[in-house]
## 1
Amino acid sequence: MKPKRSRDTLHGIETAKETHSSMNSLEQRIAALEARLTQVEDQLAFYQAVATYGPAVDSLTNDVAGDLWFEDGSYDIGDPSFAMGSREEIIAVMNGEGHGALVDQGCAHVMSTPLVGIAGERAIGLGYHRLYRHTEAGYECYRLSVSRWDWMRDGSSWRAQKRTHRLLDGSAEARTLLKETLLEIRNMTKPG
C-alpha cells in the first residue's frame, strides 16, 4: 500500500514539474537565440568579406583579397583569358599589369550589400559589382556585373569556393545567373 502524500508534497511535485517544463522551455529559447545569433554573425561575416574585396584590390593588398578564397577556389569573370581556378591564379591576375594599370589610373571596385542565403556549412551571396575608373573626363562606370559568391565554412570562418561574374550588358547569361541564384537563395531561406 502506497503511503499517502500530503498536500505540500503534491504541491512540491507539481512545482517541480512546472520548473522542469519551464527549464526545457528556457533551454529551447536559449538554443533558438544561439542559432539566430550564429545566423546573424555568419551574415555579418559575409558583409565584411564582400566589403574587404574592393579596398584590398584597389590598394594592391592582393594577399588580403586572395585570402577570401580557399586554395582551390575559383573566380569566373566570364572572360576565358582571365581563367582563375585557384587562389594563386586569382592573386596572379590581381598582381598582373592590367590590374596594376587600372589601379595606377585610379579605380574603385564597389560591391553592393549582398543578398545572403545560408544552409548549414554552405552559403551563397548575390549582389552587384561596379568597377569605376578615372579618365581624363572624370569618373566612369567601367563595368557593371552581377556577382555570385559560393561560400563554405572553414572552421570558425567562411571562404569562397567560387565567385561568378557576368556583365549586365543585356545578355541572357547575366539574367539567368541573377534569376537562378535569387531563387536558390530564396529556397535556402524559406522557413520550415
## 2
Amino acid sequence: MSTTGPSRKVMLLGEIAVGKTSLVRRLVHNTFEHNYKATVGVDIYEYRVAPEGLGLAPSRQMSETGGASECSGVSETSGASQGGEASEGGERAEARAAPVPRSAPAPSESPASGGLRLIIWDTDGDFGEAIFSHVYCRGAAAALVIADLSRPETWPSLGTLAKGFASHFPGRPYELVMNKHDLAPQVAEEDLAEQGGVSGLGQSVLLTSAKTGDGVERAFVALARKIVRRGL
C-alpha cells in the first residue's frame, strides 16, 4: 500500500445494486464482474490520484480545475470486509466531522508532491439515511452519491443522500453520479436533476458506466480535486 501523499476518507453512498462496488473495482482493479454480490457492512479500497490529476504542479496549486485528468492508481484493498463486527453489534455513533490538522504537511505528504490517496469506503446500501449516524461515516472527507440510471426508482435517493451528507458533514464535498448509463436511454440532465431531487444543489450529475469504464475515473478525480481545493 502506498504511503506517498496524504490520505482522505471517501464514502460511496447509494441504494442496493446501484453499482457502488462495481465502480470502485473498475477504478482500482480495472475489472467488472457480471455476477452481483451485495456488500455486507463495508469494504475498503485505496486509490492514489497523482498531482497532475489533481491539477497541481510541485509546490503550488494550479487554478485550472476543469475535467478529469490522468491519475495513477494503487490497486489495493484493505483485505476483508469490516461489516461483521460493527453491523452485528448494531453500533451507532453520532456522525461528526473529524477535525483536520491544519499544519503544513511534510513535502512527501503534500498533494502537490505525493498526490492524494483516496481511502474509499464502499457501504452496504441497506443503511439508507441511517448511514450518517453510523460509525462508518466518522471522519469522512467527501462522498460519491450514486444512483442507477437504468432504474428511475433509485433516482430520488440521489437528492436524499446528498442533502443528508451535506447536513451531517457541512463543508465536505460530494459528487452526484448516475451509474449504468450504458443500460439506459439518453436522459436530459435537467430531467435527471429534477427527478433526482438535486436541481437546487448547483451541481452537475456525472454519468458513469462501471461495465465499460466510461466516466469512472473522472468522477473520482473530480471529487479528489474538490478535497484539495477545500484544504481538507
